[in-house]
Amino acid sequence: MKKPEILVPAGSLEVLKTAVIFGADAVYIGGEAFGLRAMAKNFTESEMKEGIDFAHAHGVKVYVTANILAHNYDLEGVRDYFKELKEIKPDGLIIADPAVFALAKEICPEIDRHISTQANNTNYGTYKFWYDLGASRVVSARELSIAEIKEIRANIPDDMEIETFVHGAMCISYSGRCLLSNYFTGRDANNGACTHPCRWKYAVVEETRPGEYMPVYENERGTYIFNSKDLCMIEHIPELIDAGIDSFKIEGRMKTALYVATVARTYRKAVDDYLESPEKYKANMEWYKTQIASCTYRQFTTGFFFGKPGEDAQIYDNNTYIKSYTYLGWAEECDGNTVTIEQKNKFSVGETIEIMKPDGRNVSAQVLRIVNEEGEEQESAPHPKQRLQVTLSESCDMYDILRRAEDTK
Question: Which of 24, 204, 299, 365 is close enough to 8 for a disulfide, judged by CB 3.0 to 4.6 Å?
């Protein structure tokens, strides 16, 4: 049974390192241009080099997104960008546009070319088309069922890889090709500037037909008719592996290190447990579900994997996330029980927090002391991005995540 790759997103160098330490086999990132997450922090050239070097030192691959649908004015910039990437040496490029694909093949043929989900990859003929042009991997459209993916696997070359989204936000449009942002805000979703209007609050009125209403669920605040649930396939690892999927892709390049650590660690353990013993996987299911529910999410769905989603795949009464934990920081340096962090959210001396470790443990610890860069003690840490030395009641290791449980009742 082939072991699938756990592919994890990273929007910053901090998150990339977290993904690597918490179980990713590969990480996908975006540079400062030509990717579809313009609102993410993204990577400068020097950060990308440092991140790739760090990942490779830990045996982890890095793929770089270049998946815009290019206009004429983009092409020369793409050419220059690929010349830079040729020197940095990522393991793969994620591409949607045929012209961008051709430039990658010309300029850096030694870097694997992966076809983005934006290219609407819904059948084995499309996979073979890209394979014949030199692609090593295709990212399947989110609209495919497991049965369809299994049929694709049976009809493409053995050395062609299938990458499939298994966790994260679902776009309401077909394979991510949405025009809502363009029309409402003038910001192009297909060139990285999506404003996510599918998550906004709406009230629908039929102006020319008084008394006729769309069958839309709503409350006093309006309705969230485009607000899909988040994809989660943690309970269906056997079916995904049986379908012949080579890479399990997690969505979320704009997510925090806490989110990435949680999802990477959980899917890593679930896959490893299943390959060791299906019984062990079943026995640990409640742990996986509890861990996944501990990071920020919207309610879960299995998307299109088991057929066309019904009305229960949407959230009609709100557009808010469920948040069980607050991210406090990650351990940049450790000296016994004292850890150096860049603080992300407020916490105080005397609070009980958790140290989240890559091996699956969550260790409760009390905050005993907080010291700022000037050597001054603080009772609390109210200002984000402060660099602090925090003394805890339990020992901490480099790259551990600090988080605080929240009362969600």
Answer: 24
